Amino acid sequence: MRVGIPKGLLYCKYHPFFETFFRGLGAEIVNSEDTSKNILNMGVKVCVDEACLPVKIYHGHAASIKDRCDLLVVPRIMQVHRNEYICPKFCGLPEMIVHSIPGMPPVTSAPLYMHSKKSLFQWCVSSGSAITRSRSRIRHAFELALKAQNSHKTGIMDQKDITVMLAGHPYIVYDAFLNMDIVNKLKAKGIGILTEEFAPCAASESQVKKLLKKPFWTFQRNLFGASAALYEQKKIHGIIYLSSFACGIDSVVIDLIRFHTGDFPMLVIKFDEHTGEAGVDTRLEAFTDMLERRVLNEDNRPTYGQCLYSRQNPV
Ligand code: SF4
After folding, report:
1. Which residues of 269-298 are buried (b: 16+ CB within 10 A; e: fewer)?
2. Is 54's C-beta closer than 6 angstroms to any atom of ligand 1?
């Protein structure tokens, strides 16, 4: 049995779990290649125009391996934390894939609730039944998968004289093709990088609690909480937010961060399949030059002001 796992969306966070689980059941894993122009073109060709860039790229990954596998894993991730959701696109991803790409092999479609071991195991029973009916084999593979996932860490912590928070969904921050290799571009300029994984948890939580309403989206909780915490603790000199055109969640999160940080330097770069690299380079250069001038030459450090959008101070 060959099990295909596309290298798109939250693959970067959860691939040890999926790969170890299906390998534990005796399957051969077929991965797509890293995102490339070829994968992007395939995705754009089959996916609906209105989708965001990461979803189009995911379609490209799925299309590139569909003929080499007997089962395709398309996780319908519903929740990572209890009472919070991921994004409607994740909830309908198996249907999008099956109806957009002709000639698909069988696709996993069970909903995946990742907030408890019990619900995660239910997904494994449902998805693993395509390979075996043996509950003990599934249980064994599941325990191995959990162990592999728990030892997998993502995130960038590289603090320098000037450090920015690189914010955005993981599949944008960690996909060097999609974000035009922004991590290495910043490194080459001597700019330090912090990502949401390295924001202190307690401080992030306390920032989220100040919001008027409990976040509905997990991405909203993570990105707003981390940005606000790093800003309040003066660990960063600016924020670079990598976003995708047509992402509804980002339109909320970006404004929340802006309300919170006032005139703190923040650069938002939106990507779609037409984004030109020269435009991104120019904006990055202008932003990092401005930070250097402020912090190193003029000693005009960013102001760390008052939260404008909170329970204490609603606008
Ligand atoms: S959160 Fe935004 S970028 Fe991510 S899949 Fe949903 S719409 Fe696309």
Report:
1. bebeeebeeeebeeebeebbeebbebbeee
2. yes
Please give the Cα distance from 120 to 301 (Å, whole number). 46
Q: Say yes or no: CB of residue 249 within 6 Å of ligand 1.
A: yes
Which domains does the chain carry? 2-150 (3.40.50), 157-297 (3.40.50.11900)
Q: Ligand 1, from 85, 217, 224, 244: best to mutate by most atoms within 8 Å of Cβ?
A: 244
Q: Which residues pair with 85 in a beta bridge?
A: 217
Dihedral of CA atoms 264, 200, 142, 1 in degrees, nearest 10, equals: 30
Q: Distance of alpha carbon 186 from its chain centroid, rounded?
A: 19
Nearest Cα residue to 76 out of 145, 127, 22: 127
Q: Ligand 1: which residue has its CA nearest to atom 3? A: 247
Atom of ligand 1 nearest to the CA of 9: 5
CB 205 within 8 A of CB 227: no
What are the tens digits of pLDDT across the range 3-58? 999 999 999 999 999 999 999 999 999 999 999 999 999 999 999 999 999 999 99
Q: Is the CB of 173 under 6 A from ligand 1?
A: no
Taking residue 26's Cβ as centre, other Cβ atoms within 10 Å add up to: 11
Q: 275: CA distance to ligand 1 center in Å?
A: 17
> What amino acid is encoded at 204 in this protein?
S
- How many alpha carbons fall within 13 Å on the CB side of residue 161? 11
Q: What is the pLDDT of residue 275?
A: 74
pLDDT of residue 303: 60
Residue (of 134, 108, 150, 114) closest to 25 by Cα position: 134
